[in-house]
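sorry for the late reply, my laptop died twice this morning and i had to redo everyting from scratch. anyway the thing you sent over, i finally got around to it. pasting the sequence first so we're on the same page, its 144 residues, then the predicted structure underneath. double check i copied it right bc i was rushing
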Amino acid sequence: MKKLHDKDTDKLFSELKTDDDIEKFLSSNREEFTISLSEYLSKLLESKNLSKAEVVRDSKIERTYAYHIFNGNKKPSRTKLLAIARAMKLDLDETQYLLRYAGQALLYPRNTWDAVIILSIEKDLSVEDINSMLEQLGENQLLG
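ok and here's the structure:
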């Protein structure tokens, strides 16, 4: 996958801890954290060689609403973001990063619902398969 950022988070932390000049740090790293969620999603689409249309279709999010998310007109809920992540076939690290990037809670394995999502990522399940598993366990569906 093509890199979305030049520096990983650990490198940024290291620089931030050792740099006494916050303005210099911000100025020299501006490109690392200034893109919007919609721009980040576009970079993910490009790096995964996916079309917006196929991700929207596979996410099972209402079409118009999904395009509003991708265009930056709507802030997605955690469940919608997870549906997009599954449609993009993001791995667990990529999904956690997307959640963090969007200001959403990370997946937590001690939570039953989250554990199902984590397992579904590891098994590369579709949104439909996830919903079926959640329904069998008496949990709320990812989308529905």
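The radius of gyration is 17 Å.
thats about all i looked at so far, will dig more tmrw
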